[in-house]
Structure to design on (270 residues):
């Protein structure tokens, strides 16, 4: 369920916020988006984890360069942080980026800030994911519930997507944020894309070998046929050579027999 989906149906209203923060206002009798998805919402998880570690809102505010009031609104409403702030949040909450998405109570080792993609790298990966699944920007935007303009801006690196958008990608493609946001991430779409590339390369290689084989094989076949055709002609020449010899000898024998018959007739006359 997306933010735009809830906006269109009047479930949440945007009420503004500080840079890097997205705040939503809950209408009466409507549950928070996190609750409807069966898990704690993002702000509530930050509040729970912060209190579990004994940190204050002011400490988090100083770390993010926000006011304590902004952090209070983030934790008390359905909000999201820009992806460039996620490494800081993971370090502060002592959790992995996947724990942040799953709202895990048992956390894993902190995701190192150096492992996160840069803005340009993230933009390229989002574009690659979409192309690997043969989706255009309008189709993917409609499927995950954001505007096509926003998706274009994310893929061009003009805007940094909020973590909520990455979670929409995760929910749609059934993956974890670490597979999208980290340099070590192995997103299925990339493997699929590279597999297609390898398959195409393999196909082209096979076709090249076939073409080369055909280029070598055709002259050999022609040469073989020429040789095969040349052998009968040679035998024919031998036959033709033998036939004239035989034709030459036959008249000589006939002339000899005629001469013998002439001689015999002359002797009889005598």
């Amino acid at each position: 369920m997306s933010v735009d989906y809830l906006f269109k149906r009047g479930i949440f209203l945007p009420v503004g916020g500080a840079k890097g923060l997205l705040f939503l206002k809950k209408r009466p009798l409507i549950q928070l988006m996190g609750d409807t998805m069966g898990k704690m919402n993002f702000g509530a998880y930050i509040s729970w984890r912060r209190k579990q570690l004994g940190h204050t809102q002011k400490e988090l505010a100083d770390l993010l360069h926000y006011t304590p009031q902004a952090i209070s609104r983030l934790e008390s409403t359905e909000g999201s942080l820009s992806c460039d702030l996620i490494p800081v949040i993971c370090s502060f909450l002592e959790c992995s980026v996947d724990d942040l998405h799953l709202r895990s109570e048992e956390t894993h080792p902190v995701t190192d800030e150096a492992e996160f993609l840069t803005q340009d790298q993230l933009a390229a990966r989002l574009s690659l994911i979409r192309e690997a699944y043969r989706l255009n920007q309008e189709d993917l935007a409609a499927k995950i519930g954001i505007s096509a303009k926003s998706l274009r801006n994310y893929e061009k690196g003009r805007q940094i997507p909020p973590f909520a958008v990455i979670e929409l990608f995760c929910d749609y493609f059934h993956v974890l944020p670490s597979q999208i946001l980290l340099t070590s991430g192995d997103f299925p779409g990339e493997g699929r894309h590279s597999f297609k590339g390898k398959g195409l390369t393999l196909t082209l290689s096979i076709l090249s070998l076939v073409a080369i084989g055909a280029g070598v094989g055709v002259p050999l076949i022609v040469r073989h046929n020429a040789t095969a055709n040349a052998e009968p002609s040679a035998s024919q020449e031998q036959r033709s050579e033998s036939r004239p010899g035989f034709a030459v000898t036959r008249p000589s024998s006939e002339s000899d027999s005629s001469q013998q018959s002439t001689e015999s007739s002359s002797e009889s006359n005598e």
